[in-house]
Please model this.
Amino acid sequence: MDIKEIDVLELRKLMQENKDFTLIDVRNPDEYQYCNLGGALIPMSEILERHAEIPKQGTVIIYCHHGSRSRKVIDWLQANLGYENLYNLSGGIHSWSINVDSAVPIY
Model:
C-alpha cells in the first residue's frame, strides 16, 4: 500500500489556516523534549500498545526525525489495522527546522 506524504510547507499552511488534523510524533521522549512540533507523543516502540490513540477518521500526520520511522509506523498501521487516513511528514522535523522554522533545533 502506498504511503501518502505531506511536506513541511503543506503542514505549515494547514497550521496557519487552523485546519483540523491530528499530529503524532513517533520519536523517543528525549527527542520530543529537545524539540517538537506539538501534537501527541507516541514513540515508535509503543505503537503496538497505543495504536488505539490514533484516530481512524480525519487527517493524521505522523512525523519523526527524518521521516523513516514515521514511514515504518504508517506502513504497519495500514497493513495490519486498515488505516487509510495517515500522512508521513516528508523529511521529518529536520526538514521543518531547515525549511520552516530555524528556531527548532537541528540534531
In short: The mean pLDDT is 97. The longest strand covers residues 22-25.
